[in-house]
Structure formats: C-alpha cells, structure tokens
Amino acid sequence: MKKITLILASTFICSISLLANSQAERISLAEWTFDWCTPAAASTTSKTTAVAPDRGILASTTLFATENISGSGRGFSWPTSTGYYVYSTNWNTASPEKYWWVYGLNTKGYTNIQLSSKHSNSTTTPGYTLEIQYKIGESGAWTKFYGPFDVTKTVTLNNPTAIGDGPTPESPATLPEECSDQDKIEIRYLMTVPTQAAGVQVRIDAIILSGIEKETGPVSGLNDRENNSIKVFTTDNKINIRGAEGLNAVIYSTSGSKIKEINSLPSSYEVELSGAGVYIVNINGKAFKVIF
After folding, report:
1. Looking at residue 217, what is its pLDDT?
2. Is the peptide bond between 126 and the residue preceding it cis, with omega within 30 degrees of 0?
3. DSSP-assigned states of every residue in 195-218
4. Cα dihedral angle (206, 77, 159, 169), rounded to 10 degrees?
5. Could you give the strand order of the β-sheet that contains 268-272, starting from the edge strand earlier in sequence?
6. Beta strand extents in the chain (DSSP E only)
7. Run of H or E including 235
C-alpha cells in the first residue's frame, strides 16, 4: 500500500509540474512591426542606421539592420505609397553576404526563445531563399537553426505573409537551448539563393522574439550584489522599487507595451497602476516580474 501511495504522489507532483510548464506565460522580448514606416509620417523612405524594436521588454537593447547590401553596409527602405514593412534591394549576387540582422539581444532570465516573421517578394517568380542563423556573443560562429525556405510569391503590399516554410506567427521557430539566458545573441536571415535582378524587393515584416521566464524567479540575470540590494515588490495597487538609486527603469505589460519610464530612480520609489495583472519591471536591462 505504501508503494502505491508513493507512485500516486509522484504522478501527482509530475502532473503539477507539467501543468505549470504548459501554462508558462510567453513574454514579448522584441518586436519590429514597422508601424512608423508610413509615408505621411516619414520625411525620407530609407534608413542607413539600425533601429530599436517597436515594442517588447528589451526594446532599448536590441537593434535591427541589413548588412553588406551592394557594398553599402546597413540600410533598408519602405514604400512611398503604402507602409508597414521594410525592404532591401541588390540581393541579386551571392557575394558579399546579404542578410537581415538582429543583434544585441540579451536573453538573460529567459528560456525557450522563439522567432517569427513575415516575408515577401516584389515579383511573382522566381524568388529567393533564406536560412536563419544564430551566434552567441561577438566572437561566436554563425550556426543554422532554421531553413532554408523559399520566398517565391508577391503578396499584399502592406501585409507581407510568410511563404513556404518560413517561421510564421502561427508556427514560430524555436532557437536552440544554448540561446537561453545569454548576455548577447545575434540572429540573421542569410540569403542563400539570390534574387534574379537587382531591383527586386526583399521584404520583411512582423519580426517577433519571445521567451519564457526561467523558473529561478523574477530576478534572473542579476548578480548577487544586485539581488541583495534591489527589491521590487507590490503593496495594494503599487509597484515598489528599493535599492536602485540612480538606475533607470521601464514598466511593461507582458504584451510588451510600455506603461511608464523612470530615469535616475531615487533610493525608494513607488508607482500606482490602474489594474490587476502581470507586469515586467526592467531595471537597466534586468527584468523583474510582479503580479497583482
């Protein structure tokens, strides 16, 4: 009888663990939707510098660009008659390498990192082929983890849709586990089969990176000194921050929407929020999760 009791107890505990993992909340780390690429709002329709994500709790630390496009370095454009996606041209030769590039992504405190995006082509056929690679840190080697996949059709201009086996929002690509809990990873969409003409638009939109908070708790990624000195907690409808004097903080919803930004925190700070829910407090790039 004791043996049966132990088996049942073990099964019960495992069931609880599996249920908790299945219900783990996925958090937006960085998203590029390019909503600002509207012709009416733009004085120019191209950029030669990287841009921060439009939303996500790591929006201040992750950047996006193209690299080695026709020898001109980073750059991309957006259409003059519609908006909400970006494109690049001169992808018609294999050398130098051409790729969309996400870099400076800090996944500290997060695991099960997933990526999705939308792609399209300005001509019906033929198209081009991409594969997705990652590397850890500045000196790591690029390693393929998804693809290659073909982008062979044109789609509605203001809503590019993933073609072929691309990582769609409905079926995202999961990065290898070694990309979890890292100070810095980089991701690139490398062209492996070029376009047929220099003027073909290689389009990308809706780049979304998400992760699940590690079970070690909301202060994952902080060193021991910061663990001991920085405290984030709730009282009534308020978030309280202690021991972070002089640091900057941003409060996000778990969807990645910015709620409040605080520069140069005092030694004791509190802010009242309008409703119950789950919030992320990012203090100098380190994430704290609080629940009302």
Report:
1. 38
2. yes
3. -SSTT--EEEEEEEEEEEE-TT-T
4. -20
5. 231-235, 238-242, 268-272
6. 26-32, 46-47, 63-67, 76-77, 86-88, 99-105, 110-121, 128-136, 143-151, 173-174, 185-193, 202-213, 231-235, 238-242, 249-253, 258-262, 268-272, 278-283, 286-291
7. strand 231-235
What is the spatial distance between Cα 90 and Cα 70, in angstroms, rounded to a whole number?
6
Angle at alpha carbon of residue 173, lines to 169 and 174, rounded to 5° = 125
Token pair, residue 167, equals 């990582």
Instruction: For residue 121, give both structure tokens.
Output: 């082509």
pLDDT per residue over 89-143, tens digit each?
888 888 888 899 998 888 988 899 999 988 887 776 667 899 999 999 888 899 9
Q: Nearest to residue 153, comparing CAs of 163, 143, 165?
A: 163
The distance from CA 40 to its chain's CA centroid, rounded to whole angstroms, is 27
H or E segment and range at residue 88? strand 86-88
Burial classification of residue 38, based on how many CB atoms lie within 10 Å of its CB (0-12 exposed, 13-18 middle, 19 or more buried): middle
Between the alpha carbon of residue 199 and those of residues 139, 159, 289, the distances in Å are 33, 20, 46
